[in-house]
């Protein structure tokens, strides 16, 4: 582990390159067209994206409120896993009872080039923040040293979610919490609609559809919701979240609001 220009390095270039979907998330040439690339000084496009184009800002506020309701408020030492450009890190740093924050990501340009601009624009308390280049499968912190973890659009990008949760369970203190936003759990009604649509595609001309149907009368969940090898996106049924968290020593709570679901896992 080394400190370089104000950030920690927990992984070398080879380790990052060997992480699934690392090529996609380390492609800096794709960033200028995205709303969180504010190198042009236009901070408002990021705010509009978080507040109006998506529900991410609402989800962030909702999960903090949910944590207070369950009496596991965000405080002490935290880690923002797959922090990206660190907009969540910046907002967390402004909570008075948060003392220290690790912002962990394996995308070098997001963490080292874009994140400083976002943190400044969000008026973050940067003295609390330690940016870390590394893998969320190998978090180089002592056992039981962290009070909370935040994941925004992170869990469903894990190629091995149980390995990720076991690592977080290791570093979290008893009653430590995992706050999750930006997830897209598949509910039974959505799965049923997908199956019905697949049946329709099977009995109508293929020219009507871009994607071909799955030729099974009872297609599996993974057939209908395949993972993306390039970006590392995975889909999970709502029930999968609870079972995976339970296997790894967490009690998972969820709250469904205006078209989104936030999750809060509490370590046993």
Summarize the model shown.
The protein has 268 residues and is of the alpha/beta class.
Question: How does the SSE layout of this entry go?
Answer:
Layout: E1 2-4, E2 7-9, H1 13-17, H2 22-25, H3 44-53, H4 56-69, E3 76-81, H5 87-93, E4 98-105, H6 108-121, E5 129-133, E6 146-152, H7 161-171, E7 172-181, H8 188-202, H9 221-224, H10 238-247, E8 250-257, E9 260-267
Structure commentary:
With 268 residues, the chain is of the alpha/beta class. The chain has 2 domains: 2-185 and 230-267, Vaccinia Virus protein VP39 (Rossmann fold), CATH 3.40.50; 189-224, no CATH class. The protein is built from 10 helices and 9 strands. It has helices at residues 13-17, 22-25, 44-53, 56-69, 87-93, 108-121, 161-171, 188-202, 221-224, 238-247; strands at residues 2-4, 7-9, 76-81, 98-105, 129-133, 146-152, 172-181, 250-257, 260-267. Strands 1-2-5-4-3-6-7-9-8 form a 9-stranded mixed β-sheet, with helices on both faces. Strand 6, helix 7 and strand 7 form a beta-alpha-beta unit. The longest helix has 15 residues, at 188-202. The radius of gyration is 19 Å and the shape is globular. The model is unreliable at 1-5 (pLDDT under 50).
The CATH level-2 architecture of the largest domain is identified as 3-Layer(aba) Sandwich
Number of structural domains: 2
What percent of the residues sit in helical stretches (DSSP H or I)? 25-40%
The top-level CATH class of the largest domain is: Alpha Beta
Task: Indicate the mean pLDDT.
Answer: 88
CATH superfamily of the largest domain: Vaccinia Virus protein VP39
Radius of gyration: 19 Å
Order of helices and strands: EEHHHHEHEHEEHEHHHEE
The coarse overall form would be: globular
Query: Approximately what portion of the residues adopt beta-strand conformation?
Result: 15-25%
The total beta strand count reads: 9
**Largest sheet strand order:** 1-2-5-4-3-6-7-9-8
């Amino acid at each position: 582990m080394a400190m370089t220009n104000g950030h920690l390095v927990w992984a070398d270039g080879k380790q990052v390159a060997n992480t699934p979907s690392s090529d996609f998330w380390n492609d800096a040439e794709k960033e200028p067209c995205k709303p969180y690339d504010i190198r042009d000084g236009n901070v408002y496009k990021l705010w509009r994206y978080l507040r109006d184009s998506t529900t991410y800002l609402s989800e962030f506020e909702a999960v903090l409120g949910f944590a207070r309701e369950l009496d596991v408020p965000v405080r002490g030492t935290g880690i923002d896993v797959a922090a990206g450009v660190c907009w969540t890190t910046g907002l967390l740093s402004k909570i008075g009872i948060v003392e220290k924050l690790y912002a962990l990501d394996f995308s070098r340009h997001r963490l080292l080039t874009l994140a400083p601009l976002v943190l400044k624009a969000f008026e973050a308390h940067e003295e609390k923040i330690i940016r870390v280049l590394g893998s969320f499968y190998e978090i180089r912190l002592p056992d039981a040293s962290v009070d909370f973890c935040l994941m925004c659009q992170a869990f469903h990008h894990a190629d091995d979610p149980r390995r990720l949760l076991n690592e977080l369970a290791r570093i979290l203190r008893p009653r430590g919490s995992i706050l999750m936003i930006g997830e897209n759990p598949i509910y039974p009604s959505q799965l049923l609609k997908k199956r019905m649509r697949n049946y329709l595609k099977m009995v109508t001309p293929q020219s009507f559809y871009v994607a071909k149907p799955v030729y099974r009368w009872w297609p599996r969940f993974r057939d209908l919701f395949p993972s993306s090898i390039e970006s590392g996106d995975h889909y999970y049924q709502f029930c999968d979240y609870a079972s995976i968290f339970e296997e790894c020593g967490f009690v998972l709570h969820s709250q469904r609001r205006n078209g989104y679901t936030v999750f809060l896992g509490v370590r046993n």
